[in-house]
Amino acid sequence: MEFLLMLYADSAQFEKMSPSQASEALTAYGAYTGALQSAGVLRGSNRLRPVTAATTVRVKSGKTEVLNGPYAETREQLGGYYLIDVADLDAALAWAARCPGASHGVVEVRPVWPRSEF
Amino acid sequence: MAQDWLEAARAAETAARRSYGKLIAYLAARTRDVAGAEDALSEAFAAALAEWPVRGIPDAPDAWLLTVARRRMVDAARRRRLDESASEQLQWLTDLATDENEELVVPDRRLGLLFACAHPGIDRGVRAPLMLQVVLGFDAATVASAFLVAPATMGQRLSRAKAKIRQAGISFEVPERDALRERLDAVLEAIYAAFAEGWSDPQGVDPHRRNLAEEAIWLGRLVAALLPEESEALGLLSLMLHAHARREARRGAPSEGPGGAVRPQQQPL
Q: Nearest-CA residue of chain A relative to B121?
């Protein structure tokens, strides 16, 4: 079954990192992605630009409203995701705990809603 | 006839009490659909009450109930999911329905069911009620009054927890060695919560709470029997047995006040 691991973190923390710290973090993510790949469970993954690059769209009575910024202003923001395919929640939670994102933020684990059950 | 019916009813009830959790655990293990398994099993019990008085009680009541419940689940899955992606699940259910002749003994997956009920992804407060319902077959109203919650609220909490088990992919497997200790603590905690609810009615006079302590002891025995190496499970069981053995002495007659009668001390003059 598919799970989306959503990585929430304070992007200010990343900006404060020294170049060596930043490359260390990137290496950790690279290793994690590699581990998911070699286990054959990775379905997709991306890192997102910080919320300063976010634009929000809403259509109200036929009129499109475009706003600068994220949908919700919170300290911890979605910074990336992994889509994985594993046997059950425990396996997904074990992968989430190994994710570097779980150590400097939180990882929310959400099951994908299968099309057949809409 | 009335006698037959009573006997069949009693046999169905005995089978229900003894193997409810076992049948639910087996039926729900693959699909994780506890609510669906409960529906199917209750239909099977209804069928048993209709059929056993006429045809006699089958040699293996568990297997009989399981066969009927499985058929109900296959029918329900057919009605619900016509999508081709559901064919895999249907295939599994049909496979099961054909192998029952070889296997009359229902494998015991109750331990896995207990671990699912006490999964960290399940709200702590609903773990004990969930166990009482899915492993022991208590109805929502009984569980609600035992935990002093409105029946509708309890029903909602229980169905939310069952939906979480199914949708979130909570497994019915007993955790691996390294995770076992921590997860077992949650199981034992929920069992003790059930026991503690029964504690407030030591005489067993409240019909809604009656047996709750004994049911918790039953669950404690089950875990201790299935995990004989785990000292914590044995520890909880002995604690509950110790407390339960002294229940008669906890309260005296109302005139004696709380804690029973205190004998006047003989003061030597």
A: A89
User: Which CATH number fits the domain that encloses residue A22?
Assistant: 3.30.70.1060
Highest mean pLDDT: which range of A79-88, B87-96, B135-144: A79-88
- Indicate if ipTM > 0.85: no
- Specify the DSSP class assigned to residue B257: -
Model-level pTM? 0.80
Report the pLDDT value the prediction gives residue B92, as an integer from 0 to 100: 58
Domain residue spans of chain B? 2-98, 110-249
End-to-end CA distance of chain B: 73
For B61-112, how does the pLDDT look when each residue is reduced to its tens digit (9 = 90+)? 888 888 899 888 888 877 776 554 455 565 655 555 555 554 456 677 888 9
Q: What number of helices (H) and strands (E) belong to chain B?
A: 11, 0
Of B81, B86, B168, the CB nearest to A111: B168
Counted domains in chain A: 1
Quote the CA–CA distance of B83 and A1 in Å, as a whole number: 17
Question: Are A88 and B83 an interchain contact pair (Cβ–Cβ within 8 Å)?
Answer: no
Test A89 with B121 for CB contact under 8 angstroms.
yes
A-interface mutation test, from B90, B91, B170, B178, most A Cβ less than 10 A away: B170
Whether residue A90 and residue B179 make contact (CB cut-off 8 A), yes or no, is yes
